[in-house]
Amino acid sequence: MRKAFLEDLQKVPGIGRELAEKIITALS
């Protein structure tokens, strides 16, 4: 579920992808 959520964030135009990458980094 978390992975799908991050994939949806990456689809958001603008800051979505950057935000998703920051979240992935924080969760690592």
Could you characterize the architecture of this molecule?
By secondary structure, this protein is an all-alpha fold. It has one domain (1-27). Helix content is 79%, strand content 0%. It is built from 2 helices and no strands. It has helices spanning 2-11, 16-27. α1 (2-11) runs antiparallel to α2 (16-27). The radius of gyration is 8 Å and the shape is flat. The model has no long low-confidence stretch (mean pLDDT 79).
Task: Give me the secondary-structure topology.
Layout: H1 2-11, H2 16-27
Helix pairs in contact: 1-2
Q: What is this entry, summarized?
A:
This protein is mostly helical and 28 residues long. Helices cover 79% and strands 0% of the residues.
From the structure above, extract its key features.
28 residues; mainly alpha; 79% helix
Rg result = 8 Å
Share in helix: over 70%
- What is the average of the pLDDT values? 79
Strand tally is: 0
- Helix-strand string: HH
User: CA-to-CA gap between the ends?
Assistant: 16 Å
Number of helices: 2
Give the DSSP E fraction (strand runs of 2 or more residues).
under 5%
Number of domains: 1
Structural class: mainly alpha
